[in-house]
Specification:
This is Nucleoside-diphosphate-sugar epimerase. It contains ten helices and 13 strands. By secondary structure, it is an alpha/beta fold. It has one domain: NAD(P)-binding Rossmann-like Domain (Rossmann fold). A seven-stranded parallel beta sheet has the order 3-2-1-4-5-6-10, with helices on both faces. Strands 7, 9, 11 and 13 form a four-stranded mixed beta sheet that branches. Strands 8-12 form a two-stranded parallel sheet.
Length: 325
């Protein structure tokens, strides 16, 4: 029986991944801050480890063949690069070194982000071999993830390193919620304002299966985009209407208005006010952040489900948790 050490097991992806691995017979050691908040039943092959990334985790990796590092700082309102670097880069480096010291870990799987790769529009989709572009290269989150990627790739001769780059994940067990906020912001609205850009959406279950496939089939030092449906924000919200049974008046937001809001957010951040509104984030909303999944399909053998299934799972979960009213 293979044993894996997983960080970020309480999050959207972590919870789905743990469930998937247990179903496949893995022994899972899951790092969580609060074991009581884990959304899953007790299992004989699951060990919940209370702790955080700032601790020495080497002893918890005993007998683990694989480390899957999911935990990350994703909040958009933090003001300094160091706020993201501390978790997304420095903690990754520390975890990797602990895995080396353990002596049992053979593979280190880093869950990064598609935002570290070059995006494009429908005419030339972004892929693993394209470098990050503006405005994402100005994103503290993306920069910190890319810094961690570069360190791991520079040390791939010490241990097998697999990097997966998911796009925007949707599905059940979004407890915060995190990416599911896009559903909440549009649910049962009579008037819905939407930005001019778009993004790639993927079912979190497909990402979980992609990580497992990466362990089994991934090549050392390679990146794998886990991506599926390229949709404009307008198209996504129209798809969501099938589950809300309501057709709001949809009004597009202009680029200049979003840029103006971004300048205002930058001024607030300059004076120390934490806000997710910034010029970089507003410019990102105006981009068609589209990708292709050709490499993960061909090399990892992933069969992606329609994004409708992910939306259905997310809505069903939110309803069961009384998040949607």
């Amino acid at each position: 029986m293979k044993t894996v050490f997983v960080t970020g097991a309480n999050g959207l992806l972590g919870t789905n991944l743990v469930h998937e691995m247990l179903a496949l017979g893995w022994q899972v050691k899951a790092l969580v801050r609060n074991p009581d908040s884990f959304k899953g039943a007790e299992h004989s092959h699951l060990e919940l480890i209370k702790g955080d990334l700032q601790e020495d985790l080497c002893t918890h990796m005993d007998a683990c063949e694989v480390v899957i590092h999911i935990a990350a700082e994703t909040r958009q309102h933090l003001l300094r690069y160091s706020d993201y670097q501390k978790i997304n880069c420095n903690a990754t480096i520390s975890l990797f070194r602990s895995a080396l010291v353990s002596g049992s870990v053979k593979k280190f799987v880093f869950v990064s982000s598609a935002n570290t790769l070059g995006h494009s529009d429908l005419f030339e989709l972004g892929s693993e071999d394209k470098a990050v572009r503006y405005p994402f290269k100005d994103s503290y989150y993306a920069k910190s993830k890319l810094e961690a990627e570069n360190f791991l790739l520079q040390n791939k001769d010490s241990m097998d390193v697999i990097i997966v780059n998911p796009t925007f994940m949707l599905g059940a067990y979004d407890t915060k919620p995190s990416s599911g906020k896009i559903i909440l912001m549009a649910w049962k609205k009579q008037i819905l304002f939407y930005p001019p850009g778009g993004k790639n959406f993927v079912d979190v279950k497909d990402v979980a299966r992609g990580i497992i496939a990466g362990i089994e089939k991934g090549k050392n030092g390679e990146k794998y985009l886990l991506a599926n449906s390229n949709l404009s924000y307008k198209a996504f919200f129209e798809l969501l209407q099938q589950y809300s049974n309501q057709r709001p008046i949809m009004i597009p937001l202009s680029k200049w208005l979003l840029h103006l809001l971004g300048y205002g957010g930058n001024c607030a951040r300059f004076f120390g006010l934490e806000t997710s509104i910034s010029l970089t984030n507003m410019r990102i909303l105006c981009q068609n952040n589209f990708f292709i999944n050709k490499k993960s399909v061909q090399e990892l053998g992933i069969k992606y489900k329609p994004i409708d299934a992910a939306i259905h799972d997310a809505v069903t979960y939110f309803k069961s948790e009384n998040v949607l009213r």
